[in-house]
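I'd like us to work through together how a protein chain folds, taking it slowly. To get us started, please write out a protein record for me. Go ahead whenever you are ready, and we will take it from there:
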Amino acid sequence: MQRTPSSRLARNQGKKIARQSITMIIFSIGVVILFFFVLMPRLIDLFFNFLGTGDLSFNNDDEIAPQIPVVLQLPEATKESKLKVEGYAEAESQVIFVQNGEKKDEVKVDDKGSFSYELTLSEGENLIGLYSRDEAKNESVVKEFKINLDTEAPGLELENLTDNQQIILKANQNYEIKGKTEPHAKLSINDRSVYVDSEGNFRTNYYLSEGDNQLKFIVEDQAGNKIEREVRVNFRY
């Protein structure tokens, strides 16, 4: 029996469809293998990274410097050689302390971003610097401040007043007291505050009672050192 052209065409089309089907099956298998062995592990990693950091970035390189440490208020001067420094920085980072140009210590910041460290100061001016370093070794800008350790009591000079001094005449009853102490120290006479200028000079008027007057001077410098001195004067008309 002779085959017709239409039957040969149908047979060729069937072979073509079969080849296309095999190709699609192989392609589908390749896609499935690619998905399960390449893409899915990557998606799982990204998912867990997102849960831990909230960042879906494909770039794991950290080149961003940590925040500059924030230090709670410190005194400009103190009489205590031990000084506790507290503050905040990037959680789990390190805070490096430098004192007078010399590295002192590295302090671990806790998971809440807090840190604390006790410095030992040297007499006189102390230049303190600190900066943060994160796990990727990025470092912040250095924050610096000065603290003066002063363990000496302030001086007090009275220019026109001595102990057991006698003052006479009504015109001198509102007596002007002049003297010198440490710049910007706190001064009081019988619990009354007296202004001290930037060079340590002071002057004030004190109204004397007739007879004996006991004047109590208290001076406290910026570091907290304090002296007390009593002067007795006698006033009569």
Observations:
- The first helix runs from residue 5 to 53.
- The chain is about 20% helix and 40% strand.
- Confidence is low (pLDDT under 50) at residues 53-59.
- The CA atoms of residues 144 and 206 lie 44 Å apart.
